[in-house]
Amino acid sequence: MTSRAAAGAALAALCGLTVAACGSGETTLRFNPSSADARQVPPATTQPEEPKGEPAPGASADEPLRGKVVVIDPGHNGGNAKHPEVINRQVDVLTKRKPCDTTGTSTNDGYSEAAFTWDVSQRVAKILKARGATVKLTRKNNTGVGPCITERAAAGNKAKADAAISIHADGAGAANHGFHVIMPKKIGGPVDPVVGDSRKLGITVRDAFRAGTGLPYSTYIGSKALDFRNDLGGLNLSTVPKIFLECGNMRNSGEAAKFRSPAFRQKIAESIATGMQRYLT
Q1: With a threshold of 0.70, does the pTM exceed it?
Q2: β-strand pairing of 180-184 with 226-229
Q3: How many CA atoms lie within 13 A of 220 on its CB side?
Q4: Taking 80 as the threshold, does the pLDDT of residue 223 lie above it?
Q5: Which residues are catalytic?
Q6: CA distance from start to end of the chain
């Protein structure tokens, strides 16, 4: 193991007044929380199209993912803004210390990242379960607090997941747009053995997401929608293949409008599920 970095991250001023740009803990955005911040959207009722691909060993054509375990991490939580004393607590992510969690971002009219990720994650879970996978989520609702980023990583490890994905949306400048996938780097820690598989998972999900949603690669982060980082606890502490997916920029008016659409969120979910299945099979 390399020695852990000693630099501490300053506490974020989060009492519902500021929002850290998703995942980075570096950019702060201001918004007016509203009742929409904790809004939950019912899971989709439409049935997704089955992607092409061979069933997993021991699985059937109807349930190609039988025997596979997937952990889905819906970013943030709807109650985070009301409990800064909880989410501002510093935790060790091996390369630095960071807040336990953040509030996430929102669209300019108050549709929160937490509500968006909760809705999309439920849709992805429903699709993957229908295909035979065992699916576990890192949080049970969109009204709670946390869990901390360390606990989110531990959930995938405990489940011995074949693949894990943390679903987010970014909060960048309004002119920026497009999605990107974040993958781990080697840090001399527990993630090192799965860095290669995480990269394969990231590229497979990227390709399926681009084809299924029509959203462009990010214009402001990464290269061809791929970004590699060593400062995210959800990745650094993972012992299973894991990625973060930033579905787009909630501060961009065009992407915000798409994210508010249940039909488009279903398209996002189907694209993610297709990418996960292609990786797993």
Answers
A1: yes
A2: parallel
A3: 13
A4: yes
A5: 246
A6: 32
